[in-house]
Structure formats: structure tokens, C-alpha cells
Automatic annotation (TrEMBL):
Keywords, ordered alphabetically: Oxidoreductase, Peroxidase
Gene Ontology molecular-function annotations: peroxiredoxin activity
Carboxymuconolactone decarboxylase-like domain mapped to chain residues: 41-102
NCBIfam families: ahpD_dom
Keyword Glycosyltransferase: no
Keyword Oxidoreductase part of the UniProt annotation: yes
Protein's name in the database: AhpD family alkylhydroperoxidase
Length: 188
């Protein structure tokens, strides 16, 4: 059960309510997370507008974003993020048995770039202070500098969302009864 009252988008000004709804139902079903972030509208604005902007820009292929996010979420044991991002990774053509081995990367469905993304996600999550220059040499062989920055940002944000969702016990959104309706009014 969520530790804070989920808020419907109707409690927000129109522009923020539209962003809430666009992210909560357009990116994936992140309604529970949006309903929690709605308590701090500038955070909802900044995080969701940035993530939607990055997705629209499509500088970094979604396959690599989702490989990184699922790997980080499994390392951090965040069931909310794993449940929400595994289906997105499947849409990117990663078979179920390959998804199951993450954050391991010993599966024939993973090519060298996939393996590098998974390895880098683990390093940023577990020991960002100790990443060797050799890893960045390999990253530069596969990605532009902008893509490396975005990949690092996405990995770090996944860690943030893992902790946010776990600490506040954000509802999983995967059942219709777990999301707030627009008619609910918060008890504040």
C-alpha cells in the first residue's frame, strides 16, 4: 500500500495535469508513480517533461535505455520498475529468457553493444567511482558523447526511481483498482 495518498491529475493545473496524463498512460502505465509525484508538481514537471523529451528526441535507441533500466532495477530489486520496464524491453525484441538473465549478459540474444550497456549499467549502479577508462573507450566505439551522457543519465535516474518507488511503496499500476480515479479527492 502506498505510503502517501495518490493524487488524481485533476488536482493539478491544466498543463501539469496534461503532462501527468501523457506520462501516466502514454509512456507506459506509470499512473501510481505520477499520482505520487503530483504531491511535488515541480518534480513531476521536470522529470516527466525531460523523460518525454528524451523519448521524442530518440538520440539513444530505446532498446539500450530499457536494457539499462531493467538491469539497474533488478540490481536494486525494485519490483515496480522491473514490472513496468520488462514489457518495454520485450517490445524492443528482447526474448523473455534473455530478459530473465538480466543483469547478467550471457545470452545469445545480446550482441556486444547490448552486453556493454548491461555492464555499464551495473558499474554506474554499483561502483560509479571506479569505472575504468577502458569502459569509456568501448562506449565511445558504440555511442556518441551525447548518447553516453544520456545513457549515464538514464541509469542514474533508474536508480533514483527505484529508491523513490520502493521507499514510498508506489502502487504497481498493473491492476485497474490500484490507480486513483479523477473523481477521488485527497485527504490532506
Amino acid at each position: 500500500m502506498a505510503r502517501v495518498t495518490p493524487l488524481p491529475s485533476s488536482v493539478l493545473p491544466a498543463e501539469q495535469a496534461a503532462l501527468y496524463e501523457r506520462f501516466a498512460s502514454g509512456y507506459a502505465n506509470f499512473r501510481g508513480q505520477a499520482a505520487t509525484l503530483a504531491h511535488v508538481p515541480p518534480a513531476l514537471d521536470g522529470l516527466y517533461a525531460m523523460l518525454l523529451g528524451l523519448r521524442a528526441q530518440a538520440t539513444l535507441p530505446l532498446r539500450y535505455v530499457e536494457l539499462a533500466v531493467v538491469s539497474v532495477s533488478k540490481l536494486n530489486a525494485c519490483p515496480y520498475c522491473v514490472a513496468h520496464h520488462e514489457p518495454l524491453l520485450a517490445v524492443e525484441g528482447v526474448p523473455e529468457d534473455a530478459i530473465a538473465v538480466l543483469p547478467g549478459f550471457d545470452h545469445p540474444a545480446f550482441d556486444a553493444t547490448d552486453r556493454l550497456v548491461i555492464e555499464y549499467a551495473g558499474l554506474v549502479t554499483q561502483r560509479a567511482w571506479g569505472i575504468r577508462d577502458e569502459v569509456f573507450e568501448r562506449l565511445r566505439g558504440c555511442f556518441s558523447q551525447s548518447q553516453i551522457v544520456e545513457l549515464t543519465l538514464r541509469i542514474a535516474l533508474a536508480g533514483f526511481f527505484n529508491r523513490f518507488n520502493d521507499a514510498l511503496q508506489v502502487d504497481d499500476d498493473l491492476s485497474p483498482s490500484s490507480s486513483p480515479s479523477a473523481k477521488e479527492t485527497p485527504d490532506e
